[in-house]
């Protein structure tokens, strides 16, 4: 992790002691102070009749054993009681979420990087004493606002097995303090961090406004469109804004067309979602919706709307209505069975259970097919990446071979080590990426299971790229090679002897120069033959490498593919057991209703509950 403005932590003067005009004072002008027509708005909501409906619904959820619905209602209570205007910044990683939050609060405090750094939601609110607090199931730990604090927080999180928790950041900022404003920086929903999607959805459930940054270099991808439709809009977030970031990475002549393309796609969704640009002077005609100042003004305009409480109540009412409808379905099923004539009750109960089971089976099969398709997509990535890696390794090794003087020594010592290092590197790449892909797919599956069955499954804790496979000693083809270092030495010794002998013999007969020439010429010829033998060995080893390596890579990849398939199949089995338990609970409820059908008090009690639930949902 890194901070773009590291000098921030070197400034010892607290913000409230500065006397000259600073960016904090300039921020005061942009945070709403000059808007005299704005009046203070009560951000919390309380209505006695409304809360009575909520309390009664909580009682029915406890009676029905629906813990998931109770948690949903608890979130509604917290949302209604909140005295802050919460803005959730959500979306995929590397889209500029943390950078945008830093700009809104006027300082580069939150770490930013091209790789995922936000692993827990960061709740930024106003406070005279600035601090960073790590909040987990084990308690709270407070840190000063300093770069080293983020490193300490990362070390602390590594000790925790669970990813649940949050980071609370207090910032001496007029925008936050004078407007009861809270910004929530969330992990990227595709960042391969366990639970990243659920953390984003939790922030959306309790927010008054959602900001979705999109990078101009890949704006409005299919995954971003689905996230906007299936997460933000389905959560009934009252106010939504899309911010186009990184326009500076697009060629200047293409920037306006990119902005207009995103605008058209937003208009096609018919949701009245405004588009803003994160930086100024990027597109002609967009001056009023460009830059941090324009984004601040829109947030404050929403915050001071007189309809804020009404929007809050409407959103809570819609969620209460959905919970009421969920419970009413169970009671209506029981009532339908009770209403049947006695001789048909058992038959009707059995038909209801069979219908429920068939419907669930269809859903299970569809989820299983989707998970297997996602597993197969991993295979395509593995093969594509491995083929490219394999070719790179072959080229690297054959190039290295061209520079060695003794192929036998290189083949027996260097080559096994080089291959081991390459295979370990490959194993680490496969493990990191495949674990990320698997986590993403389990998050997707759990989201659907929570929607349909009110439950989730834990991810499999299993290594996919086994270390033993990639760290195993290299088993290479046995090749008989001549030790060229030894042969050269023998050849040079022989040449030296011949040269000396030729000189002595030639000297006796008066032709010593000729004797020396014969010896030197023999040495040159010997060296030429040696070089040819070396080149011959290199060609042979190059051929073996090109034939042998594909099999080495293929064997390792087969193990990885088998492991990833086993992980996905195990996850599917767990999913089916979870779904089967849910069906069993429903079937038990049907059987209980059938057995108690003769009790008129039971029928009247169910009718009363059903009527009250329908009344609550209005």
UniProtKB/TrEMBL annotation:
GO terms for molecular function: GTP binding; GTPase activity. Its main location: membrane. The chain crosses the membrane at residues 500-529. Residues 87-246 form the Dynamin N-terminal domain. Pfam families: Dynamin_N. It is found in: Membrane. The keyword Membrane applies. Residues 1-35 are annotated as: Disordered. One of its GO terms (cellular component) is membrane. The keyword Transmembrane helix applies. Residues 7-24 have a biased composition (Basic and acidic residues). Keywords: GTP-binding, Hydrolase, Membrane, Nucleotide-binding, Transmembrane, Transmembrane helix. PANTHER family: SARCALUMENIN, TRANSMEMBRANE GTPASE FZO1. This is Dynamin N-terminal domain-containing protein. It comes from Hydrogeniiclostridium mannosilyticum.
